From TrEMBL:
Top-level division of the source organism's lineage: Eukaryota
UniProt KW Ribosomal protein keyword: yes
Gene3D superfamilies: Ribosomal protein S7 domain (1.10.455.10)
One GO biological process term: translation
Residues covered by the Small ribosomal subunit protein uS7 domain: 93-176
Protein known as: Ribosomal protein
InterPro entries given in the database record: Ribosomal_uS7, Ribosomal_uS7_dom, Ribosomal_uS7_dom_sf
Keywords: Ribonucleoprotein, Ribosomal protein
Family according to the record: Belongs to the universal ribosomal protein uS7 family.
Gene giving rise to this polypeptide: WBGene00274658
Amino acid sequence: QLVDEWAVNEAVDFAPAFELEGDLPEVKLFGKWNLQEVNVADISLVDYFTVKEKYAKYLPHSAGRYQVGKDINIYVPICITTPCRCSSTPLSCRSREDSTLIGRAGTVRRQSVYVAPFRRVNQAMWLLGTGAHEAAFRNIKTIAECLADELINAAKESPNNYAIKKKDEPERVAQFNV
């Protein structure tokens, strides 16, 4: 028994010590982009872009863990980059204002309201996906090419983008109902 303890102590004493800070490689998004270089211009969306060191991943994926609880998918790593053709983010394709129905005693009218940042991110993702799907339907272009075109056109805020077209509709209605 003493021999076993001595062997364990010797192994611990002579084990190569390596520093966690210096020996670990730097985590880069998709192996290309540094996480500190990501800038979010809209201050309300900062909490929903999980590119902090705490959530750093080599390849962002969810593995289905975010389906469990309500609003737990806030921490899903969001990365939409199209650096070869444009340098801005296509998440500007969701409206900031919307309108809702407010009723009292059988009378219903529309009232303009501000949209929560998390809903704006979800709506932008949904509109980009729907636009890519509709563009690829009965088209010779693949879904990947259509999605890339949607992302680039959304970043440029092109008026022929599906998401930008749909963004303008609720904002117009909300502006009318002020």
